[in-house]
Structure formats: structure tokens, C-alpha cells
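Sample intake sheet
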Amino acid sequence: MEADIDWEKWNLSLNATWMEAINRTPESGTSRFSGKWLPNRPKWAGAARVTRKFSRGSAFAEYRHKGANFADRAENVLFDSRGVINIGSKYDISPTTDAPHRGR
């Protein structure tokens, strides 16, 4: 699920993913991995990003979340859920938006 909202010089972008990534292949019934979570597939993941636009650039802050998940098919190595905060900016050094094409 995702949403992208623009308001004047602001943008808000939200997304969320839910999955139940459990090994249910026909061959898994005889496998020791049957019914186990697939590696690197968290149940929940999501992000929120706010961007402020300026005349020649923008600045943003975002938060990304990834739920707990396993690193292996046997579910021996668990990664805890984690969140990351990012900030950044962009500045257009070209005085116009019509930059010349390269190779001409």
C-alpha cells in the first residue's frame, strides 16, 4: 500500500508492505524447511518520506522500517527489526531545467 501527497512545495510519500512469506511449495512438505519463513522476508516493512522543494533543489527526511526476519531457511539466524533515518538534499547546478543533451 502506498500514498503520495503533494501540497504546495511539500511532498509526503508513505508505503507499507505486509507479507506472509512462508515456505508452502509442494516439495516443502517433505523438507525440514516446510512451514518456515523465507529468508530476508519480514512480515512488515514501510517507509515515510517528507520532501521540501525549492527553486533549484529539494531537501528530504525519511524513516525506513524493516521488521524482524530470518537470514537462513532453517530460522536459526534472526535479524531484529530495525529502522533507519535518512536526510539529504539535491541542488541543480544548471541555471535552467533544459540541460543540453550529451553527445551532440
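Comment: Strands lie at 2-7, 10-18, 44-54, 57-66, 69-70, 78-79, 82-91. The radius of gyration is 21 Å.
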